[in-house]
Amino acid sequence: MSDPRKELLSQIARLRGSLDPEVVRRLELAKEGKVPVDRQAAEEVVRRFLADRRDGGRLRALLTEKLRRP
Question: Structure pTM?
Fold first, then answer.
């Protein structure tokens, strides 16, 4: 009789091997409590937020200045 634990681990390994490596990386980060971020999507959200503001670009200038500081 085969060991069900070894069989299950083998199945998991085969399934994991068939996944996209980027998906596996994101799952590992999530497992550690870290939230993977889609950088392009985040940049687009910030870009839209700043474009919708009616402050004449003051917030954009302030953020740009603060991001350039070490």
Answer: 0.46
